[in-house]
Design a protein that fits this description.
Blueprint: E1 2-14, E2 27-39, H1 51-62, E3 68-69, H2 82-95, E4 102-110, E5 113-117
Parallel strand pairs: 1-3
Antiparallel strand pairs: 1-2, 2-4, 4-5
């Protein structure tokens, strides 16, 4: 199995409405995102997928999140957790219909706190 990974980032504010603690107050993060692709065969040029194509797709999706209040994005239903953001990014890249072999998306709120979405 071949695996490749690219990274991107965005800055955004959010609060978790259905949470009891400090994260229920509006705050922000400089999110780091890792997108994983995997497959068993290599294509032209001996690559699983062109890094540039993955980065372009990720950046298209991140445009809708960067410098925003994530609570204003309907799909998050007032609880834009890292888990839900990871799924949103995964689905967004898949929705571009570019045939990219996306396997998982990691979203880091901090250097030590990360959520992953991987459909199984």
């Amino acid at each position: 199995m071949f695996k490749v990974r690219i990274e991107g980032s965005f800055a955004a504010a959010h609060r978790l409405v259905h949470y009891n603690g400090k994260c229920e107050r509006l705050h922000g993060h400089n999110y780091k995102v890792r997108v994983w692709a995997e497959g068993e065969t290599l294509g032209e040029g001996g690559m699983l997928v062109d890094f540039g194509l993955l980065k372009k797709a990720l950046n298209e999706v991140l445009l809708s999140l960067d410098h925003s209040d994530l609570n204003e994005i309907a799909v998050f239903a007032d609880d834009p957790s890292a888990e839900r953001i990871a799924k949103y990014i995964f689905d967004g890249i898949k929705g571009l219909d570019k045939g990219l072999p996306i396997a998982a998306v990691d979203v880091f709120e901090t250097d030590t706190s990360m959520a992953r979405y991987r459909p199984d």
